[in-house]
Amino acid sequence: MPPGRRPGRASIREDVRRREEMAKRGAMISAETAQHMKMQLRTFSTKLEQFAIDHKDEIQRDPAFRAKFHSMCASIGVDPLTSRKGKWSDLLGVGDYYYELAVRIIEVCVATRPTNGGIISLRELVSALRIRRTTYTENVSSDDVERALAKLNVLEGGFKVMMIGHRKVVQSVPVELSVDHTNALAISEETGYISASALREKLKWEKERIMTTLRFLLEHEIAWLDLQTSEPTYWILGLMSGSSTFT
Amino acid sequence: MSDFDFPPFYSFPPSFTRQPIEATRAKQTELWCNLIRDYCRVKRIFWLDVSKAKESNLFANPAIDRRLSDEDIQYFLSQLVARGDAQWDPDRKRCLVFWRGPSEWGEMIYQWVEKTGRNGQLLTVHEIRKGSATIGYEFHDLELDTTIKSLQALAVIGKCALVKGDSDDGLGVKFVN
Amino acid sequence: MEHFTTCELTQAGTLATLEGEYTTASIDKVTLVTHDKKATPHVKGLLTVTTHRVVWTDPTRRRAIAAPLTALPSSLQVVDKSNPLRARVIINFGRGVRVNFESRNGPRDRERFTAAVQDACARKEWKRIAEQKAKEAAEKERMGDYVRRRAGAGGVQDRVRMQNMQRRDAINSGFASIDQLRGQAEDLVKIARLFRSKTNSSGEDNELLNMMAEMGIESPVTKEATGGNVAVYREELSRQISHFLRKRVLTVGGLMTLTDAYCLTMRNRASTELVSPEDFRAACGAFGRLKLGIEVRRLESGVLAVYIDSTKDRSGAQALCDMAMEMTSITALDVMQKRHMPIQRALAMLREAEALGYLARDETTDGLRFFPNGFDALLKSSKEGRA
């Protein structure tokens, strides 16, 4: 446009028309791509159905197969467990195993809460789930349990997995465990219990801090008291093997 | 007399210290009460003599070197009584443990009465407990006080009437349809 | 309309499914039209395709009619009769029923409906279930025979060895299949991602988001997509869950953690009807929008719970009145023990019942007791001959 001249009505109209055309073309491209994707999805669904017919049993019965399957999904960035109505769950039934497991995890945690205050080692949880097994969920692996637990996060019921010492521990109560608490609990790893002198020796704490921590663990039902030793000892039942069988 | 299979909590040291926190203590009480009842059921003990029990390994686990104190034994037995699962002797030296409830025993006896057509007959407690007709039944040789309690439970729901005899064992019972 | 008969709904207005039946598509704002001009119109209802039937539910969710897929011909079940102004098809029940898709996404709804009906007719789930049952019965019979004939260590060992061999083969082929599946899935994910990055906002976006949700590529944005399979499914779920939880939550004082509610709801369902925690969470999230009389609240501890305002609810108060009549009078401790709720909640419930006139209090040195109150209570007790 020559300088100094204002755009005439004709050129404005031209601009508008060009923009409209581009938008329309853009919309057509979008529509085309959407169509293309829809077709792909339909083809994929059919393949998934075939996969289901061939391997549905294995998903239910074989932890190794499940592990491979889930690592495949993770590597391409899909979560097959999000919705019962998602393609994976709907056609492959891969979700059912985990939803059932999630429910049983909740039940075990609720049942063992009076004994362990809502703190249970992952190993003990898996062990408890295996004992309560049905034919439907025979081979529970700790991978499976962790996957199911990850799904439970969305219900915000205080469920979380954490490290205490070298072990993975599942918490099922909305109690805030401080660094002091977890460090103290870590001391119980070898023996199953902690004591004031153990905390003093290994963590170099003074009396006030020791007493506060021990009292917290007792009051929250995480520790049981034993007065038949030279000094009082505090047993962390949730981290001991066999504690989940106290019914 | 069978060998008793102790439950898992019996092998955990803190189980033998009465827990100071109420919620934990409640769980501990439940575990001990169940243990006492199961132990009495398997060993077919009705009257639990406290001092005798102390000599057994019911309240002490030598493998882990832990035992319940005398006070704690009294405590847990009292809890058992409070739940209606046991009854103290007047001097608290013995405890009648209902590892099977009186009404359950009563029902068993009543079913035997019906099955053998003894309705309307006058029977003695002795017959029921020691008679040859009850051999093979679980309530055969049932402890005396427990038997009386069971029959009382039946009387309360109108399934029998108790008739006084010279001794407790001579006590008569008439079962009603 | 031929082949359509009245269909059973639950109290929440959802479909009472047959054995093994499940929904494959749910489409809102659908109108059914027949040849018969005198018939009642079926306007803008919810059209549901299941593995066994086609169901139309009226907008109030109180009436529903359904026709079995077995009544459709073996081919050309659905014929497209759309024009530029409206999306519609004819579904060949009897002399044909016209189906008008009247939502904003008419063409897409039509596609979904057609695909769902065709898939269901091809799959014949009703037949598969029957055959499966027969197969299982036969298998059981055969295994029984085999075990009887092969009783003895040798036979069992052989069988185990064979099974192990079969499993090993199966696992190897299974892993290869997973790799194959991976290739196909990856392509799909790539397209979805590419598309997402190119477009800003258009009507198609919603559809894409729905597809991504179905593929398990969730993000905060996909959760907002409406109308797709996942979203409609979750809305249905919302109604079902609210209906199921109502009484149970009131019984424990009007408050229950989401985790407990999930557990309770799942335990009441068959293993094929379980839902993911995300489904459950999303369904609960829709309570407010769908006005279902129950809501999600965050407790002080940070935990999520479902909550029903029991002050307006009389059934809880009536239940307490009944309890008081049975026990002559009740305390907060009684309610706490019998109903398994925290003592503060029990006390609050007693006060609420008192405020509604179901209970009267009596405060003595022994403590606070509540007696049954009200004309109803007197009437009931005099009827039963009590003082």
UniProtKB/TrEMBL annotation, chain A:
CC annotations in GO: ESCRT II complex
Pfam families: EAP30
GO biological process: protein transport to vacuole involved in ubiquitin-dependent protein catabolic process via the multivesicular body sorting pathway
InterPro entries: ESCRT-2_cplx_Snf8 (IPR016689), Snf8/Vps36 (IPR040608), WH-like_DNA-bd_sf (IPR036388), WH_DNA-bd_sf (IPR036390)
Family designation: Belongs to the SNF8 family.
Name listed for the protein in its UniProt record: Vacuolar-sorting protein SNF8
UniProtKB/TrEMBL annotation, chain B:
A matching Pfam family: ESCRT-II
Single annotated GO MF: structural molecule activity
Record keywords, A-Z: Cytoplasm, Protein transport, Transport
Compartment(s) of residence: Cytoplasm
Matches recorded under SUPFAM superfamilies: Winged helix' DNA-binding domain (SSF46785)
Gene Ontology, cellular component aspect: ESCRT II complex
Keyword Lipid biosynthesis: no
GO biological process, any: protein transport to vacuole involved in ubiquitin-dependent protein catabolic process via the multivesicular body sorting pathway
Main location (coarse class): cytoplasm
Family assignment from sequence similarity: Belongs to the VPS25 family.
Protein's name in the database: Vacuolar protein-sorting-associated protein 25
Taxonomic lineage from the root: Eukaryota, Rhodophyta, Florideophyceae, Rhodymeniophycidae, Gracilariales
From TrEMBL, chain C:
Keyword Cytoplasm part of the UniProt annotation: yes
A Pfam family matched in the record: EAP30
Domain of life from the UniProt record: Eukaryota
Gene3D superfamilies according to UniProt: 6.10.140.260, Pleckstrin-homology domain (PH domain)/Phosphotyrosine-binding domain (PTB), Winged helix-like DNA-binding domain superfamily/Winged helix DNA-binding domain
GO CC annotations on file: ESCRT II complex; late endosome membrane
Example GO biological process: protein transport to vacuole involved in ubiquitin-dependent protein catabolic process via the multivesicular body sorting pathway
Annotated GO MF terms: phosphatidylinositol-3-phosphate binding; ubiquitin binding
Keywords on record: Cytoplasm, Endosome, Protein transport, Transport
Keyword Metal-binding recorded: no
Cellular compartment(s): Cytoplasm; Endosome
Predominant location: cytoplasm
Family: Belongs to the VPS36 family.
Subunit field text: Component of the endosomal sorting complex required for transport II (ESCRT-II).
Role played: Component of the ESCRT-II complex (endosomal sorting complex required for transport II), which is required for multivesicular body (MVB) formation and sorting of endosomal cargo proteins into MVBs.
Protein name from the UniProt record: Vacuolar protein-sorting-associated protein 36
Organism: Gracilariopsis chorda
